[in-house]
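Practice problem: predict the structure.
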Amino acid sequence: MRRALVVLAVLVGQAIVGQMVVGQGLSGGTASAAAAPAPATMPATMSGAVDVTGSAGGASGGDVRDGGPVALIGVPGLHWNDLTPSGTPNLWSLARAGAIGSLSVRTVGNITCPYDGWLTVSAGTRSAVGYACGAPPAPEARGEGAVIPDYRYLIDVAGQHTAGTLGESLKAAGKCSIAIGPGAALALADRQGAVTRYHGSPLQVGTADLATCPVVAMDVDDLVQPYLAGEPGRLPKVPDKLTPEERREALRLADTKAGALLSVLPAGTTVLLAGLSDHGSVPHLRVAALREPGAQGRVLGTPSTRREDISILTDLTATVLAKAGVAVPATVVGVPLRVGDQGATFERLRQADATAQTMRSAKGAYFTGLAVLQVLFYVLAFLLLRRRRVLPWVRRAAVALAALPVTSFLVNLLPWDNHLELFGGMAAWWAAITLLALAGPWRRRPLGPLAVVAAVTALTLVGDLLTGTTLQLNSFMGYSAEQGARYFGLGNIPFALLATGTLLATTVIAHRWPGKVGVAAIVGLGAFVMVLGGSGMGSDFGGVIAFVPGIAVTALILSGKRVSLVKLGAFCVAGGVIVMGFAWLNYLRPPDEQSHLGRFVGQVLTGEAIDVIWRKLQAMLSTLLSPNLMPIVIAAVAFLVYAILRPEQASAGVVPAAFEHSPALRAGLIGTLVSGVVGMLVNDSGAAVLSMALALAVPLLLATGIGALRHRSESVPGVGEQLAGVAE
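Answer:
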């Protein structure tokens, strides 16, 4: 056991050092215009996740005939708090007459500028210019149309190989289009950067133009332009640069321009309204509205997110093409927007953004506090484990610390909309789980508290997967819509907690029923959870690759068989084969029913997968510098290795006592570490995966060891006095 853990620790260290070296090598190269995601401050939404489409299957009510006129009105920076009957009457009326939802404008970085937003609509996949990200370039007039200057840069240098997909598709289908404003020109430009018809203002567009050109897009930049007036054309590094009065004036100008176009649109035109970008340093959910017959008062979502009221930028590309009667290319990540049920209100959407902002504003403090508690616990445990009189308190603290992560999901079973209710609900769940683990009849059994906390963690996440993953959305350990890393399924940190909770809980079964029954429980229940995570319910790619070797290693050790690096590599390959099987089956479904697993297969076939993998690698490397993640990894691994190598000095025999009491626990811990390390290497959340696995597993290991020492002292006469003497 000692040798296995030491080897595993060395592998962790080598992996971390190797990634740091790679990261240093990359930092010295020329930056790609498809800019690397900025390091995220919170691990729950690592910025490298770029393909988040999912499936909901089928169309719903509210659809109209395809092939009619369609207009896209993009108002960068617009969110639902901006719309009022008096301040923005045209935009207000447009939204009131259609289906409405929230739009996540996340592209590649944490913040989306107007240039990146319009470029993403053009490409149909998340895109970024990578330099001077601000307003789109002003087109150069060419007869009735225009040309985007330096357009080939986007394709040849910036790596945006799908730029022009929207315009090229319309051109190939013989559909005339009109662009109004720089952003709209970028969106409708073909592969050569050419726009069929271009106008700088909606006042230049007549009814005759719209009668011959069924597709029109307009960039209403009056709201965002004041924010781009600072350093060279970039969004300000403050949440909101304008005063309320200045913003209202900018909104008035934007509303007037939108009203000018709306007044000349032909009857029956499908109108899309989208807040295409951010306006400051904080991402928000933006406005999405679709006006068409039968849509009024309904929610607007998309199969991309599997949320009835949330869509993404690339869905706009697919929607414009579908409504214009043009086939959507396979390279387009989004799918047409879907009109849902009645019940949409402006207040509901405003509250959705407010809830996301409440979670976002506290996330940094939460993870900082968690890191401090973890490190402080290991320091105090090192100092106090030799003092037998305080061991019960150390055990209670360990159980309470391990019970903390799952509360970030369970709190979403309660209503909350402010920080007091959020943290109050988490505290209530924390107390309930801790009391359940420490106050029940199982508390006197060494593995009792571990079984409760691990089972509650695993069952919570399994239940969430089976019911549509409502608990992970807007949770500290999960994901939030405005950050755009994921909208459904199993996130990377939830995977770490689910895998760890499952392996530890099933090892308790193996402890109670050793032999074939225990091994069968680990393999059977582990496989069930793995399928949940990798299938359409979880849609987790890296999790399957990491979980398979964890299950296999645990089962092999329990069976008394040797684990080698060759076998470990084979298990990782097996995980990759299994998840690619899930992905292939998903790829065989219709495009609007595919998750990002199926989309990835398509990207492999078209050669785009390299860009996806590269961005995920960059995001993973950025986590190695996280002040909230790496302290947990370093402290937990250092304590665990030292406790194995120097058991009496480090833990007064607590860790060896746990393994002696339950060899199954030893196997489960090694399997957990294997899953954590592999998960760190194959997921864009990187160190977040390993840190959360350790945050759950190591405190429960210490709690079990203390319980085992107590059990031994009570069952063997004289041992208690001897141990007390050693502690003194």
